[in-house]
Design a protein that fits this description.
It is built from seven helices and seven strands; from the N terminus they run βαβααβββαβααβα. The chain is α/β, with parallel strands linked by helices. The protein starts with a strand and ends with a helix.
Amino acid sequence: MDNILVIGIAGGSGSGKTTLMKNLMEQFGENISVLSHDNYYKRHDELTFEERSQLNYDEPDALDTSLMIYQLDQLRHGRAIDCPVYDFAQHNRSTDTIHVEPRRVIIVEGIMIFENEALRNLMDIRIFVDTDADIRLCRRIKRDVNKRGRSLESVLEQYQRTVKPMHEKHVEPSKKYANLVVPEGGRNQVALDMIKGSISRHLEG
């Protein structure tokens, strides 16, 4: 498939990446395929649930980024892929997959997608969603408790143990690779209009 636009959306956990992506999907959904880095966490069947819950999920080695690079490259060449699915309640990869068809626009989203040079080099536009740490923590608590079946204590413990230090080590430094830094994510209407304009021009071209 010729003329595919790949947009990377990065930023800390709870920064507003999903809100931004949903805004784009509302207008261009039939033209967009999505790959989420979260689905590429490695499988750990050899570990107990307790052992898996203690792993550091906020460092690059926790993710099978090489598989994501391969599958994104397949989509860029017009080939459908079966994306893995991650079960956050079990801290392990599910047996399910998501069938993803190539479309004119591919959105790649995740906290560490700019950290890997080979992955970010496959992106035409790199967007970093920049949001205050307190707001990100509140959003993460709400999401993990309500949608991922986690306890408040486990969310806070994980945040203090790995999420915050790994954000400062891996996520924040990757902001320098962004073409566009968007404060407040999907609620930033000016930035949203700019991104929508880029997509519209691509689709019309």
